[in-house]
Design goal:
heterotrimer, A mainly alpha (249), B alpha/beta (269), C mainly alpha (250), A: 249 residues, MetI-like fold, C: 250 residues, mainly alpha, 10 helices, globular
Chain lengths: 249, 269, 250
């Protein structure tokens, strides 16, 4: 393992330790009325994840998330590239993207429900709109900021537009594009979950919302733990991939 | 005055390695140097020889690992003494303040009344030719003018010793020559001692009363050249035959050191 | 107005016009969406009647409080964390994955800790905005040219003075970027909490209106939030741009 990755692992270790200590401490202060200890959460999780009920909900969420992420990445990259390559187009449309990025998209939720109805498509839509914008914005900037000297070199070498995009622009912009994808990943996840909290009778988001309503502390703490853990792990993996990419850039 | 204006005795700088292992990095010294009051002293040397470290030691930003530095008889100890001004290599102008406010910033530590402060700022603006740019922001000025702002900011404190770390590094050759003239006239007007670090041999040869030549790392003073130029000189001194002699002597001392710095050795003949 | 700006105006007008036409013609049914002009009228009526002023004030007020806390805590934290490399390294993975954490799941816990008032929502708004401010502040602090810090030491400034007179002004544009995120996040935190827990405020009213097919209330409220969010953002962006312009970076 490279020294920096080793440091990352060590830091993650410290962070996890700190979080667990904090958690246990909070539990000791607050008690069973609103929290569960780390240990009992682990036990409960172990039991719960083996149930068929959990499997159904997990599949539902995974389906929605993967769909939403695919749309977000594909559309985000496409928009980002299209706008990034044409200076004027980006001048016109970038403020729109930034405005949408800055708006609390949770407000648009009722509109999406009205348009898509309850169910999978609403969730996917909600997840996708959270992720599309940062990916598009980062890609736009990355493509726009490719060093002019590289483009001049490509022209001098007689590369076609397609070849220039494929062999010069994309690799050069990749680190920043990937940074956008990392953010898009997190936001799509949270968007899909939020979508499930309000628009579904299935999925982990629904389970959470339900548990909040019924004040089922076991489930609330377990889901928070699972989702945070998943987000954390996925985040680390993406961070490592990002480092690999940046090292090559 | 017989006492040196600033005296470095046995000064050495050894940096510890970032991972804390083994021997430190011997960056500088031992250096012995006495600057005379009111002289113009230049330092030249290959890259990496520790010129900038030397400067930071002299302004008290770092303490030497060994040895001592005294300014006007008092030891320098972890903070920049009153009476010393410095102009760094990089642009140190504050982008969010106008030229005038940038210059006035220099007077922070003084206890002058408002009128005296404004007077000094106006003088500095006039001395550096910045009067018409007083209310402009640095980003609207060229690199050379921004350096002038930094010089003006130093001048308002009326320092007795001014250190300049390659202040004209980023400028083109012609501008450098003209800036050199400006520094000379400033030197004469203020009567301050000047310590200039430069990598340009011709600049050092043209401007200074004495030139210290530093070896490659760990930097030590391997030669001090006296130029004996007249006090009222300007850049036209380059036309003097003696100028070529000085420059040649500098290069003779520096050539081998510079080769060491870039990892080459003298080819056997 | 720049050429790009004009085209944007035209596009917006065309979009609104298209919606108007589609509703009139029946492509979009009235239950889903009203005609834009009707939304405008409803918005006007709602504001004039003052019926929902209390809810609006509650939401905006709480979001504002969350914003102020998130930004002040965030900037101070950024300053502190920036000086402590080990701490920053340890926290980096947290910052990178923070925004995927379902913060709303902490809501019941917060109610138990802070009571049923406005505090839990404000807390969530702060939790969401805080990290964005910290990350952007750290970014800005990274970019303070070292020569400026050396200059501060030469002029005998202590760390506090240096932070206030040199570090913060230098990092200001980047801090403003973080502030823009904090605006959105405080609104999301507060409104989201209102959605979930039905304790009043615009989020609750939107949810109530939605459940009762009351488009005449729902759409104006949504438009209000969107406009407030976009305008505040534009104001901060203007400020940010003027700072950057002064420095020749724009």
């Amino acid at each position: 393992m490279s020294p920096s990755n080793l440091r990352l692992a060590v830091n993650m270790g410290w962070l996890t330790l700190a979080v667990i200590t904090l958690w246990q401490g909070l539990y000791l202060v607050i008690g069973d009325i609103a929290l569960r200890s780390p240990l009992s959460t682990l036990q409960f999780t172990a039991k719960f994840v083996s149930t068929a009920q959990f499997a159904t909900h997990l599949t539902e969420t995974s389906k929605a998330f993967v769909l939403a992420l695919t749309i977000a990445v594909a559309a985000g990259l496409a928009i980002g590239f299209l706008l990034g390559l044409k200076r004027f187009a980006s001048d016109v449309f970038e403020p729109f993207l930034i405005a949408i990025y800055s708006v609390p998209k949770i407000t648009l939720y009722p509109i999406l429900l009205l348009v898509f109805g309850l169910g999978l498509s609403a969730k996917v839509a909600f997840g996708a709109i959270h992720g599309i914008i940062p990916i598009a914005l980062f890609t736009l900037n990355a493509v726009r900021n490719v060093k002019p000297v590289l483009l001049k070199t490509a022209r001098v070498m007689g590369l076609s537009s397609a070849a220039t995009i494929r062999t010069v622009i994309f690799p050069s912009a990749l680190p920043e594009i990937f940074a956008g994808i990392r953010i898009g990943f997190s936001l799509t996840l949270i968007g899909t979950l939020l979508g499930e909290m309000f628009a579904s009778q299935r999925g982990l988001g629904f389970l959470l919302m339900n548990a909040i309503g019924l004040h089922n502390v076991d489930v609330i703490v377990m889901l928070t733990f699972l989702l945070t853990g998943f987000a954390g792990l996925a985040g680390i993996v993406l961070l490592l991939v990002n480092r690999r990419i940046t090292a090559q850039a | 005055m017989n006492q040196p204006h600033i005296r470095l005795t046995d000064v050495e700088m050894i940096f510890s390695r970032p991972d804390g292992s083994g021997e430190g990095i011997h960056a500088l010294g031992p250096i012995h140097l006495d600057l005379r009051h009111g002289e113009f002293f230049a330092v030249v040397g290959p890259s990496g020889c520790g010129k900038s470290t030397l400067l930071e030691l002299m302004i008290g930003l770092t303490s030497p690992t060994k040895g001592s530095i005294t300014f006007e008889g008092q030891p320098i100890n972890g903070s920049c003494p009153d009476g010393i001004g410095v102009v760094f290599q990089e642009d140190a102008s504050f982008a969010w303040l106008t030229v005038r406010d940038n210059i006035a910033f220099g007077l922070r530590r003084t206890a002058l009344d408002r009128r005296e402060q404004d007077q000094r700022v106006e003088n500095a603006l006039a001395m550096m030719g910045l009067v018409e740019f007083a209310d402009v922001y640095p980003s609207q000025l060229s690199g050379g003018m921004r350096q002038r702002v930094c010089i003006a900011r130093t001048l308002v404190t009326q320092p007795r010793l001014i250190l300049l770390d390659e202040p004209f590094g980023a400028l083109d050759q012609q501008t450098r020559l003209l800036m050199g003239d400006e520094i000379l006239s400033l030197w004469r007007k203020t009567g301050a001692t000047i310590f200039l670090i430069t990598h340009a041999l011709d600049e050092a040869a043209m401007l200074a009363d004495r030139i210290g030549v530093m070896s490659s790392r760990p930097g030590q003073l391997i030669d001090i050249v006296e130029t004996n130029w007249p006090h009222g000189r300007d850049s036209r001194i380059v036309e003097d035959d003696a100028f070529g002699v000085v420059t040649a002597r500098l290069w003779r001392s520096l050539r081998v050191e510079s080769m060491k710095a870039i990892g080459k050795t003298e080819p056997r003949r | 107005m720049t050429k790009a700006g004009l085209i944007r105006l035209v596009l917006i007008a065309a979009f609104v016009g298209m919606l108007e036409v589609m509703v009139r013609v029946g492509r979009i049914d009235a239950l889903t969406m009203q005609a834009p002009h009707k939304m405008g009228l409803d918005l006007y009526a709602m504001l004039v009647s003052g019926k929902l002023n209390k809810a609006i004030a509650k939401t905006m007020g709480n979001a504002a409080i969350a914003f102020v806390i998130a930004v002040s805590l965030g900037v101070v934290s950024g300053l502190v964390i920036h000086r402590m490399k080990r701490l920053r390294e340890t926290l980096d993975p947290l910052f990178a994955t923070y925004y995927a954490i379902p913060v709303f799941a902490f809501y019941p816990l917060l109610i138990l800790l802070l009571g049923l008032g406005d505090a839990p929502q404000i807390f969530i708004g702060v939790m969401l905005g805080y990290v964005a401010v910290v990350v952007n502040t750290l970014n800005g602090l990274d970019r303070v040219p070292r020569v400026l810090l050396k200059t501060a030491r030469v002029h005998g400034m202590n760390p506090l003075e240096t932070a206030i007179k040199i570090t913060l002004p230098s990092a200001a544009p980047y801090i403003l970027t973080g502030a823009k995120f904090a605006v959105a996040y405080s609104l999301i935190g507060v409104i989201g909490a209102e959605f979930i827990m039905s304790t009043g405020g615009m989020g609750y009213e939107i949810s109530f209106a939605y459940n009762n097919f009351d488009n005449a209330t729902m759409y104006p409220l949504i438009i209000l939030i969107l406009s407030a969010s976009i305008s505040i953002n534009m104001v901060i962006s203007r400020w940010e741009k003027s700072l950057l312009k002064r420095r020749g970076l724009q």
